[in-house]
Write a structure and sequence with these properties.
The protein is about 60% helix and about 0% strand. By secondary structure, it is mainly α. Helix 5 packs antiparallel against helix 7, helix 5 runs parallel beside helix 8 and helix 8 packs antiparallel against helix 11. The longest helix is centred in the last third of the chain and has 26 residues. The radius of gyration is 26 Å and the shape is flat.
């Protein structure tokens, strides 16, 4: 038997003798001229990649394919993926609520405003929610939001030390709840509905002697994406801030 034929038979069926090739960028994408490739263009490409492929899909190789450019061209603008991710997060923050966050003259209304804008932002960009909740971008939009929140806490009558503490309390609460709700929205709608129905119906048929409170509450159980808990928790924090401010002599005019 000729050597070539014997080698062909020894290979596993369907396995090519050539090394696998990476998929080429879609022919529908136009190659971007080098002089037009800048940070803003790369950030937009990064957002598209994450919304399509998730954060794990955000690589410089994927960006190069998205842009119709070589991956090394991205390094001229961003030293690594982490720097790019922080720029993306800050860009999305500015896009979501920069024009809407304006002081009302009422500290409580201001804190509700910033909290709701952050929550809406997380839900809008759910694939980024976890990283947005645990990272500090130390960039312009974050500085503006922190200054806005501290100003409201100061107006509520808190000292600087108290304001810093409650900046973290309200910030951690809003980010944690918003990130959780965003994660829920990423689940398939049928899975979300199934979980809720099975928890509710399962609770209703439990032994009332063993689970008296749960059986009684079963008809009123809320789905994980119900917005009421967010508002209730936020108001509890604001009530605590108001009480503390009053103990300091009351809110500032």
């Amino acid at each position: 038997m000729p050597t070539q034929d014997r080698a062909a038979k020894e290979r596993s069926p369907g396995v090519s003798s050539q090394s696998p090739r990476k998929s080429a960028p879609s022919s529908g994408r136009k190659r971007i001229p080098r002089d037009t490739l800048n940070k803003a263009v790369i950030i937009e490409a990064g957002i598209s990649v994450v919304e399509r492929d998730g954060l794990d899909g955000l690589t410089f190789q994927a960006l190069g394919e998205e842009l119709g450019s070589h991956a090394t061209s991205v390094y001229r603008h961003f030293r690594d993926k982490d720097e790019l991710l922080l720029e993306i997060i800050d860009t999305l923050r500015a896009r979501s609520y920069s024009a809407d966050v304006v002081a009302t003259g009422n500290w409580r209304d201001d804190l509700v405003l910033i909290a709701m804008r952050v929550r809406d932002h997380y839900l809008r960009y759910a694939p980024f929610a976890h990283d947005m909740s645990v990272r500090s971008t130390h960039r312009s939009r974050e500085f503006v939001n922190v200054e806005f929140t501290l100003a409201a806490l100061s107006q509520a009558g808190l000292t600087t030390e108290q304001a810093v503490l409650y900046l973290r309390v309200i910030g951690n609460y809003v980010r944690a709840m918003s990130s959780f709700e965003a994660a829920v929205t990423c689940l398939d709608m049928n899975v979300r509905a199934k979980d809720y129905i099975e928890m509710k119906s399962g609770s209703m048929v439990l032994d009332p002697q063993e689970f008296p409170h749960l059986v009684d509450a079963a008809p009123y159980l809320l789905p994980f994406d119900d917005p009421q808990p967010f508002a209730v928790g936020l108001n509890a924090i604001l009530d605590a801030i108001e009480s503390l401010g009053q103990s300091n002599g009351g809110a500032k005019a």
